[in-house]
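Annex B, item 7. Sequence and structure tokens for protein A, then protein B.
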Amino acid sequence: MNFQRGQRRDDPEINLIPLIDVLLVILIFLMVTTTYARYAELKINLPTSGAEQTQNKPRQVEVAVDASGNYQINNTPLALVSVDALADAMKRAAGSEPEPIVVINADARTSHQSVINVMEAARRIGMSRITFATQTTK
């Protein structure tokens, strides 16, 4: 028997918006207060040595070129300026060092060809480690 004739029965309704707001606040709180540990890192103890570290610096061959195209190798002036003579002098200056460093000290007004001659002489005798000396501006 239905004694409530004429009255509509309302279905209960759950309002989700306040529930979502509370869940977001809880999520933000958990994200801020959680600390994350890194488990992917490896803890490695490297071996140690009691010996002194040796300073094996390769020999440097310093080639100076002035503005007029004169060459000096390790402060020894060269009279011959051909590429072959320059290569021979550089080889003698390197001695028994297998891979010396060639340091080119060129004047700012030196011709480009004079520097290229030094690089070509180094290439001919197998010196591939070439660097240029510069000075800082004041």
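Protein B:
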Amino acid sequence: MLSLDPGMMIWAWISFLVLFFLLYKLAWKPILQTIDKREKTIQDSLDKAENTQLEAQALLAKHEEMMKSAESEAQRIIKENRELAEKTRQEMVENARAESQKIIDKAKMEIEKEKESALISLRHEVADLAIDATKKIIGEALDESRQRTIVDEYINKIPNQSKN
């Protein structure tokens, strides 16, 4: 079976220690440097990722703020356009009313002129009829200028009497 030989044990220990010392001197430092370098690379990547995430959150907040600002600006523009449209509508209504009032006033003036013209024409016709009737009734011809004066005086009294 297995027996423990003390000489073999000492040589095994010596071989182990020599191998350990050689590995420590030759391989231990490069292995630790590689592990430290890898750890630093991983830490840098984590820091970059965290910074990128913070920047992304800041950009997202800025973007949301810009969206709110754009929305409020759009609402303001819509409100201004509605107010402008209402103002324009009111101006158009007022202009239409003023124009229709002008047309009505002009029509009234034209009616009044036509009425005056008709009255003057009617007065002349009545005067001519009265003179002709007077000639037939009296049978004699008065002086035409005298007749015209008498009839005009009588006709001028008629509108004054109707106003009273």
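Comment on protein B: Residues 160-164 have pLDDT under 50 and may be disordered.
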